[in-house]
Amino acid sequence: MISIKELGQNGKKASSALLALSSQEKNKVLLKVASDLLKSSAEILYENKKDLEAAKENGITDVMLDRLRLTENRIKSIAEAVKQVSKLEDPIGQVIKGYTNLDGLDIIQKRVPLGVIAMIFESRPNVSVDAFSLAFKTNNAIILRGGKDAIHSNKALVKVIQKSLSDSQVTPLAVQLVEDTSHQFAEELMKASDYIDVLIPRGGSKLIQTVKEKSKVPIIETGTGNVHIYVDESADLDMATKIVINAKTQRPSVCNSAESLVVHEGIAETFLPHLENEITKVHPVEFRADEKAFDIMTDASLANQEDFGTEFLDYIMSVKVVNSVDQAINWINTYTTHHSEAIITKSLESAQQFQNQVDAAAVYVNASTRFTDGFVFGLGAEIGISTQKMHARGPMGLEALTSTKYYINGTGQIRE
C-alpha cells in the first residue's frame, strides 16, 4: 500500500508539472474525462453495486444508500458537470490588480494554484470527479480519501480519470486515491503538512470536528447542514408548504435539505396541521416539536434540546414556534451550522432583516434551500460548501481553489 509520504511526494511533482498546462489543454482533458466516464458507465455501475451490497449488509438506511448510489443518469450528470467546468473561465493567471508604486516598480497581483489539495469525504462518489475537475482546472494536484462505503466506486472513477490523463500525455498523479480507508491513515494525511497545502473535509459533523482538531494542514471547513426554514406571519402558506416539502423530502440525505422548521405563532395553528397533511402525501416525516407546536400538531413528538441542533439526514424535522422575526433570527443563529437558511414571507422588511442578520453562507427568501449547490450557482461543480468565513464561503468553485501571488518587475531599483 502506498504511503502518505509517497502520495505527498507524487502530489508535489504533479502540481509542478500541471503549472505548464494552458487553459486549452486543461479543457481538452476535461472533455475527454467526461466522455470516458460515459463510456465506462457499465464498469462504474458494476463497482458501485459492490458498495451498495456491502452497505445493505452493514445496515445502512435507505436514505443514506441514496447518497452512495450511482445510476446511468447520475453518471451523465457527473459527466455534464465536468463539461461545465471545462466551459468556465479559467481563473489561473487572472490579474486581480496592477499598479506602479512610488519606487517605479510594476506590481501585478495574479491568481495562482494552491498546489496540492487533499480531501477527506464520506459516501457520495460523485465528489471524486467534482473535486478532480475543479482542482485540475485550477492546475492543482489532488489527493482523495473517500469513505470505505464507497471505495469500489471511487476506485473505478479515479481509474477512468487517470487513464484519461495518461492518454492525454498528462501526469495521472494529478489525482490520487487513498485506498487505505483506516482512521489511522486519514490522520497521517491530516499531518502531512510538508506535502499538502490545504485539506478539505466534507461529510458529517464528527468527521469535520475530527479534522479540525487533528489536522496540521490548513483546512477549509465545509459544514454540516442544520438548515432552517422560517415561515413568517405574512407568508403565503401554500408557497411555504411547497417549499418546506421540497426542502425536507426531495433528498433528505444531503446537506442543503431542511432539518428545522421555525413558525410564527400567528399562523402556526393554520399552517402546521396543513403541512402535516400535505407532506404525508409525498413522504411521512417525523416531527419533533416544542411544546407550542406539539399542542397544535396531530402527529408529533416532543423535541429535546439536542433535536434542535441535529443534522438528521433523514425524514425527521424539528419544529419551533416563535413570536417574532427577531426571535426567529436569534433562534436560528443559536442553532445554525452557518450553511443555508430561509425565510418565507411577504414582508420586504422582514426579508431584508432576515438576510442581513442571519449568519449563514446562503440566506434565501421565498425559495427552497435545496438550491445551495455549486452546479446550480453556475460554478460548474463544487468541491464543498464552506461554512467558515476565511478564504472562501458558500459553494466553492474554481476561485476558491486559488491563491494569489505578486509579480514585481523593476529596472534596477534598490531600497534606500
TrEMBL record:
Residues 33-282, 299-378 form the Aldehyde dehydrogenase domain. PROSITE patterns: PROA. GO terms for biological process: L-proline biosynthetic process. InterPro entries: Ald_DH/histidinol_DH, Ald_DH_C, Ald_DH_N, Aldehyde_DH_dom, G-glutamylP_reductase_CS, Glu-5-SA_DH, GPR_dom. Keywords: Amino-acid biosynthesis, Cytoplasm, NADP, Oxidoreductase, Proline biosynthesis. One of its GO terms (molecular function) is NADP binding. It catalyses: L-glutamate 5-semialdehyde + phosphate + NADP(+) = L-glutamyl 5-phosphate + NADPH + H(+). One of its GO terms (cellular component) is cytoplasm. It comes from the Bacteria. Belongs to the gamma-glutamyl phosphate reductase family. Catalyzes the NADPH-dependent reduction of L-glutamate 5-phosphate into L-glutamate 5-semialdehyde and phosphate. The product spontaneously undergoes cyclization to form 1-pyrroline-5-carboxylate. This is Gamma-glutamyl phosphate reductase. It comes from Streptococcus urinalis 2285-97. The gene is proA.
